Request: fold
Amino acid sequence: MANTTFSGPVRSENGFEAITKNTSTGAVTTNATYGASITGGVQTLSGAGAVDLTNLITELTTAGGAAAVTLADGTTSGQVKIINMIVDGGGTATVTPVTFASGTTVAFDAVAESVTLVWNSTIGWVATSVQGATIA
Reply:
């Protein structure tokens, strides 16, 4: 099926799903569900690396040492990114956004620490909620 652009409101009684289809296998992956609640995809990141912009949530796991984590600029004003630490292996995960209106870095060093960020194309990522993580 081809993509369709609508000029008016689109309604559904049973919600919507944002999906991707693997071109090789044809397997369909649901990335987000929009209905009575919004459910986004989850990225699991172990150690150093880059937070992706395609999933709503990134779950961090650290080992014994420090983990340098990067976050690129968002793609659209209003984009939301939630980052949670789910496994603390003894190290600190430090997230460095390219453009961060609320500081320079966000450090995670304990399970259940979390930050919710919203992208603004003028000023960058804005921390709208912080649970235990340290913004510097």
Q: What stands out?
A: The chain has no helices and 13 strands. The mean pLDDT is 90. The CA atoms of residues 50 and 70 lie 5 Å apart.
